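Try it yourself: sequence plus zinc ion, in.
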Amino acid sequence: MAPPFCYRIAVPSPLRRLFDYLPPATPGDTLKPGTRVRVPFGKRELTGLVIAAANASALAVAQLRPVTAVLDAEPLLPDELLTLALWAADYYQCPIGEALAAILPGPLRHGEPLPETGTWHWQLSTHGLGLPDTALARAPRRQQLLALLRLGPHSAAQLKHAGISATAIRALADDGLIERVRTHPATAAAADALLAETPPPLHPDQAQALAAIALHGYHAYLLHGDTGTGKTEVYLRAIAQVLRQGRQALVLVPEIGLTPQTLSRFTQRFHCTIAVLHSGLSGGERARAWAQARDGSAGIVIGTRSAVFVPLHAPGILIVDEEHDLSFKQQDGFRYSARDVAVMRARGAEIPLVLGSATPSLESFHNARAGRYRLLRLSGRPGDRAAPDWQLLDLRRGRLNEGISAPAVQAIGKALAGGHQVLVFLNRRGYAAALLCHDCAWIARCPHCETRLTVHMTARRLICHHCEFRQSLPAVCPGCASANLQPLGQGTEKTELILENLFPGTPVIRVDRDSTRRKNALNEVFERLHAGEPCILVGTQMLAKGHHFPGVTLAVILSADDGLMSTDFRGGERMGQLLTQVAGRAGRGEHPGTVLVQSHYCDHPLMTTLLRQGYTAFAEQLLEERAATGMPPFRALALLRAEARDPRHAEALLTAARSAGEALGQPVYFLGPLPAPLEKRGGRYRFQLSLNAGNRATLQRLLTPLALVLETLPEARGVRWSINMDPQEMM
Ligand code: ADP
Ligand code: ZN
Ligand code: ZN
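Structure, out:
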């Protein structure tokens, strides 16, 4: 077949387009989409990815340059994944070349070959195959080995598990009866699918959930069960069935969820190779795990966010654990949501998708109610422990020491004296702050829309993020004339220090995104906790996930108010998730747990619903609120952000973007430009323009042409801008 006229190639560049190149000078087969190539780009040479062959180009032949080299004999990205990546780049408004570069492990992005994979296996040689069954009757061990290998290739680990000694293996190898091969990867998963342990019998809820999960075709399930109700066990059972079909399982976990404890649940259960992908790996390690997933030598792939884009040889099931977790949304560059991409992927690959959580996101609840996901509820408690004792501490007029009330200090002291461990939850970083009167709990509201005003410290103003109303910061509370006005969510950085001062000699361990960036930092923390010494663990929301803290009997939530009073519309949802998840942490061991919640609004209706009726009722109440206010999941949101050293430049770009957007005539509401709640960062002023539409498709019809306009606006010079589709945090 004659080569095509040219190829359309994605090149790592901020431009939202593909580039045309002529076929390579040395003739060869037509390049398939997903193949890596080297191409000249300006004065440089870059690694790009073939997206399509084409018979014409907008450019004249003389202007086109040929592909310099072809790097892959087989496409690096299977069709299924390439289609997904192209959709995601489009949907999240990310330049295609940047999106593709973001999903490749470093070495592959730079054009290096795929690492060798496959595990060595023993199989019968032709000589061995010819032996009669009874040949080694006098050496039972060796005969057992022959019998095993008649069933198929086995890895050294499997043989060891079957009780075959290294001596027996060596003896047969020396006789030329068996040989070592890299197994055909596609069969490795199937051959390896033998369980390494006997699973416990399922509880009725679990059995029902497992039976409901259909393993053929696309179906989405929302597995809702409190921490410890046995969700992971359901995943493991479903995975076993998938492995038996010779297919692979992809499991996504939040960043903090990928601990050695989690991994060991999988390695203890299955013999097959498990590829692990997370941000702490070196490029080489990532490339290797990637190659194992791609050629099928890994039966299971477990990874954080970016693993949703790992190529799979034979996809069989996709699982997203703690689906509500914020870490599934990439916050910069390619701003995709791994959870939402997982839905598209499962649909495209025609495999089941299981979203699991103790506190499902409102998006997923909504999808379940609309019939798009099937809701599977686990209510039993395999771990069988009492629900914790909730205690609300009213903060009004009480004395606070950097956010900690006297009764809370007492409770912490008592728990420590009893030899127990304590968890203290800080306010999530990055919440937009509202202005609160500590004495009477007055909160600054917009006179026009009754929503809470956002504090902008730099400009000393209060701004309404719904109607753009602005006023200067009041000096005293309009309700009680107290001067004790403070922005919520401030001053928490000092909590660690305060606790150290209050409890000298007690270790205070801080866990947040910064303190755990180092590889293994988190595991060291968990090891210390499991050692059982009394200590105080101070953490952000990230602490509230999937970990077993048997020594913890008291959890203190310093303030539920940032959630209740957040100017971020997701604040309430996050607060409910935090409280519910924390309740799943405390008192896992033999001691019952107490959860202390400090608040200025102890009788807030959301709080009452959550504590009296539980998370589902709470979520339903919030959904009604979202429907009434026209927010996701009932409508779609995007956030356009601009940052510049000169605030006027950032604002001017967004003003221009708004006019350009309005000219496109889509039914989309614009709000802004407004200073971002987190107004200044790294010496740059940040502004945002938010877009709200009836559905995502409408928003897409506006954003796609708007992004191209933005690339060419003169106001864009010197301004960093980005589009965040389905933003998870409004800062
Ligand atoms: P989740 O993922 O919902 O937090 P897990 O699957 O981790 O729950 O289960 C919690 C604990 O209960 C684990 O120690 C697990 O081994 C155990 N477990 C789960 N299912 C069963 C079961 N059917 N029988 C006995 N123990 C179980
Ligand atoms: Zn007041
Ligand atoms: Zn307003």
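One thing you can check immediately is this: The radius of gyration is 29 Å.
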